[in-house]
Amino acid sequence: MTKLYIAPSVLAADFSILGEQVSLAEEGGADWIHLDIMDGRFVPNITFGPMVVSAIRKMTKLPLDTHLMIVDADKHIEAFREAGSDRITVHQEACLHLQRTVARIRELGAKPGVAINPATPSSTLTEILSDIDLVLVMTVNPGFGGQRFLPGTLKKMREIKSMIKASGRDIRLEVDGGIDSSTTPLVTAAGADTLVAGTSVFRKPDVRRAIAELRESVNKKRASR
Ligand code: DX5
Ligand code: ZN
To answer: What does CATH list as the number for 5-223?
Structure first.
């Protein structure tokens, strides 16, 4: 069975003590660190760029899972790779020549992923699945942390899970937005194997405990079945 990965999003962390926050996540058993890059164009918000990614690279040995919510990703993927991103995920809706972009990410030595917004159907992935290592199903509209999980995305997760199985390839199914101990049982039952969590990790008084609670919330569901 695929191991459940937890990828805390630093978007919800206290940036004045970012190093400490990332270390706590690592000690708490985080598998990846999720980095939300927003450009004020594809999404309404602006976050940070490669300079901050390279600072975070020095804070942890964990893989850096970089989620680009930007237009013109082609112009920037090399800089994010050089800054230390291990995985680079681009949006299906933001890339004119998606296959070229994904191929370039792989050529640069990173693992490519494709993210889809809540209104984007699973069928848009059929022609790109064989080129990627991760599908990111947005469970909120991207742009901000702390939004409410959209349950309408569950059906799509199940569809994508079977597409992945049929492909026979090792592709992670990641979910992002409103993931906490109440939504974790729903998304894992629908096939998600990688959870991005901002608010439910970094806005909790104990970051390490919060990660453990997310993991336990899946087990509780399994035990009660
Ligand atoms: C949303 C970002 C998410 C966000 C998740 O645009 O892609 O990664 O940080 O935050 P929470 O867990 O607070 O919904
Ligand atoms: Zn994200």
So the answer is: 3.20.20.70
Which ligand has an atom closest to residue 67 CA? 2
Identify which ligand lies nearest to the alpha carbon of 214. 1
Q: Which residues are catalytic?
A: 36, 176
CA of 224 to the centre of ligand 2 (A): 30
Classified as helix, coil or strand, 110 is coil
Closest atom of ligand 1 to 43 CA is 6
- pTM greater than the 0.90 cutoff: yes
CB 146 within 8 A of CB 202: no
Give the pLDDT confidence of 52-100 residue by residue, as tens digits.
999 999 999 999 999 999 999 999 999 999 999 999 999 999 999 999 9
